[in-house]
Amino acid sequence: MSVNLSKGQQISLSKSDGAALTAVRMGLGWRAAQRKGFLAKLAGAREIDLDASALLFAGGQPVDVVFFQHLVSDDGSVRHLGDNLTGGAGAGDDDEVILVDLARVPGHVDQIVFTVNSFTGQTFAEVQDAFCRLVDERSGRELARYTLSGGGAYTAQIMAKLQRSGSGWQLTALGEPAAGRTFQDLLPAVAAHL
């Protein structure tokens, strides 16, 4: 059973049998909101390029990033499956995927922060059905879902973070609106959540 996360909520990433998860998938899905007005409706929805990124931190310092121009972390534990430039048709599927092999994440990496930014610069008011979700990659079971609700006049979102907790990992839904077209633009805002 999936958990719908609210801002600031935390969940442990342990399986129901008490074992730790070994691999998770962060999926991002969205579609462009329909334009308003007669002529706008004829033109259809505007293409929106949202980008998912995973920022790896050790002791509060960035040590690596996975995004559309650097698809695999230097150690190979985090992989981005490719850039989607337009989003989906609202079918609820993942438009961008980042895979994290938790067992391979180097010991010095203590947090992985997931961000979403509008590379084309549209605000989230122009995006519909946007979500990110965390899935147990081994079983395919959805563990948690965070919905981007209410749109807003911002161009980015600091979605969630994975943080080492004892011998396992914990997920925190951050849901923090931000401004920026790239993950670099978001680094000052991300620092406040480490």
TrEMBL record:
Residues 1-181 form the TerD domain. Coiled coil: none annotated. InterPro entries: Stress/Tellurium_Resist, TerD. It holds the Pfam family TerD. This is Tellurium resistance protein terZ.
